[in-house]
Design brief:
Shape: rod-shaped
Oligomer: single chain
Structural class: alpha+beta
Largest sheet: 3 strands, antiparallel
Helix content: 25-40%
Number of strands: 25
Number of helices: 20
Strand content: 5-15%
Strand order of the largest sheet: 23-24-25
Radius of gyration: 47 Å
Length: about 525
Amino acid sequence: MNMSCKRRTNLFATTKSPFHILTSRPLSRYLPTIDTSAIVSLAWTLLAWIGAAGMIGIALCASGCARAQAEFEPGSPEPDMSRRGDGADYSAGCSTVGCHQQLTETKWVHAPAATGACSACHLAFGQPDAHQFALIDVNGSSCAACHAFDDSSGSIHEPFALGACHDCHDPHGGDRKSLMIAQTTQDLCATCHDPVAHEFAHRPIAQGDCLTCHDPHQSTHEKLLVQSKENLCLGCHQGMDHGGVLGAFSDGSDPAFVHEPVLEDGCVACHQPHGSDYRGLLNQTQRSTCLDCHQGLVDDLPLAQSIHGAFESSQACTQCHSPHASDFSGLLAEPFNTLCLSCHDQTIESPSGKVLPNMKKLIEESPVVHQPAAQGECVSCHDPHFSAEHALLRSSYPDKEYAEFDPQHYAMCTACHDPILFEDEITTHTGFRDGEVNLHFVHVNREKGRACGLCHQPHAGTRPKLMREVFPFGPGGWNLPINFVQSDAGGSCTTACHEPRSYDNTFSPRNAPGSP
């Protein structure tokens, strides 16, 4: 049983001696047949042995406490606590005389405790056998005598600034490196900091390793970060950096376009560093995160007649855009000619029920391709997000096959094609004319005018001039053949609209024989 030095000293001082016990009553009362003088002689012998043992115990305890106080002062060289110049063995001390040995029986032991230099931290009052001690300084300056720190740091942990080292560390020893008082770093931090309670946790947090990102004492960076926030994230998220900017490429080249928040605020502009209820540790849903800055993009959304399906999905923006950096304008993940066709490589049914063909197959296998489609410039005609027109068109175009002519209804086509194609009745600016009679004008300028798409494919086809093989007719959308045939002089067609007709664009009345 362990007991204090003072208690052990008092024990020897107050215990009645065997001599007193043996002489306090007549021995003949208990042992009438035994020679009393022999008993007295034995008692004196026992008393001598016990007395000597008591004095040795007092000497060991007192000398151990006294040396722990006197022979190691703060800042002095670490002494050899087992031997001195006189050759005497001084190995007995506070942790070896049966009082405090449990303090040095842990896996990790603080150096002063391990060497018996108790007076490095403790100050005794009065005589050693009084066993009264106090910390040299309760505000952590005793720790600072050995553990130096820089008071010019950019951020300091509050317990460290207050000198409350014992809030986190055991001053004598422990089963964890750095003498932390909790079983795990996460448990220790959670005594002051609320635990992260989100659906998605940053891996260091999930593993309870707060020190991956934070210094527990002080840092030259904000929030006790062990590095600048940009370099800190890139320490784990390698491959996303080149030249200090997120969004590098596998070939080592610099990105041509970098997302502005990445340059200005770094990762925390969009991501939570500890945990989040949203995938990717986003501050909020992906759509809301993006629209915090790109709100103007959706100001006209209530007026939309058509919305891109990708734009309506939960992961809308990143289906097409890189959130960090890209080599393509608009932070596109890929160039348009491959990006759009990465989804439109199959038949797709729109929300309105209209079936969109496999555009990738159509463009790759068709002998005649509309120039914007051939160049992968889908956005020349279509808005990638939403539109006030049908089919995500950027400009107006009739949404029916038959419509009364109005030049404003054909802004989509006239953005590239000269309006003279269907505004002038007599012209030589088009090959679709009979002599100088503009056959576009004939088809479009009437009460039941034919829209361009009634006869022409907007993307690709097998016929010259992107002529359709069939066209939809009637409320049932029956496909009727056009039977267009191109010739050196023009062409001909036989449809349900009229009898077979041909046109000759090489003939002009003004060039005819006998013309004025």
